[in-house]
Amino acid sequence: MRLVHTLLYLYREDRAAEDSNMTAACLKSLEKSTYNTVVIYNQGTKSNDELMEELKAFRLDVHVIGDGVNVGTAMGRQKCFEYIWTHMPDTEYISEIHPDMILASRWEDVLVNYLDSHDEPLISCGIVDQHGNMPFLNKRVSVDVARPDFDEFLAGLRTDQVVRGFTCPCIHVSEILKEIGGYNTAFLKGRQCFEDDSMLLGYYYYYGTKRAWYPKVNYNSVVYHAVAGQRLNMGGNVMINFNGLVRQYGAMGLKALATIHESKWHQNFFTEQYNAMAR
């Protein structure tokens, strides 16, 4: 199998209708993708049977795992990866998509072709968020998700640029993702945040520091991601994964992340954390 998508499915009891509509829009857009197999981790609050019944409305090859409990981003994604490695071992590529996305028609073709022809472990897709921001391009546009030609609108945002950065959706080379272990949940015990940094360091060390590998975003394909970007408010549960990241990779890992990331916020944050540990 060429490509399998992964998605974390979460219905919040106080926002069930909102979450249901948002995810339905995402899955409806996924029907227009070249590859239609998706592994969904059920984070709650529906049972797997209820979820499977609901998903019959979409022209997708759906596999539901999990048991309706929110185990966090790292654990949920990792379980999806392991399911694919076990049950679909010939899969070449694995995507990470989010329920607050509207995916352009055949959005993944450009990314798969890029990975076919470049020695890279993953590639991110260009995005536009609910405010019209296009991260990594320092560009802003007007967005109306209700417009009837939204797919055409996304196509019009494409530009022949591959820039430094990381975001979702992204597509991994399954073999290399498996080699680095995916998300190490022995360290990443928090609900979310910094799991991507752990994975990026795994790729960085896989290729060796001499090569100075860094992640890339390919704006030859653009999708809508309503809420994008890692949470910048440090504290509470967010710091659980950061502390796990430090235990896993130490001060040198933080120093490497300051080099890997394109954004000034991440560069400054990881540099400050490294300097604090070095004192």
Describe this structure in words.
It is a single chain. This protein is an alpha/beta fold and about 280 residues long. It has one domain: Spore Coat Polysaccharide Biosynthesis Protein SpsA, Chain A (Alpha-Beta Complex). Helices cover about 40% and strands about 20% of the residues. It has 9 helices and 11 strands. The strands form 2 sheets. Strands 1, 2, 3, 4, 5, 6, 9, 10 and 11 form a 9-stranded mixed β-sheet that branches. It has a two-stranded antiparallel ribbon with strand order 7-8. The radius of gyration is 18 Å and the shape is globular. The mean pLDDT is about 95.
> Which spans have pLDDT < 50 for at least 5 consecutive residues?
none
Distance between the termini: 50 Å
Number of helices: 9
- CATH top level is Alpha Beta
Overall mean pLDDT stands at 93
**Radius of gyration, CA atoms, in whole angstroms:** 18 Å
Strand content: 15-25%
Structural class: alpha/beta
Tally of strands: 11
Q: What structural keywords apply?
A:
279 residues; alpha/beta; Spore Coat Polysaccharide Biosynthesis Protein SpsA, Chain A; 9 helices; 41% helix; globular
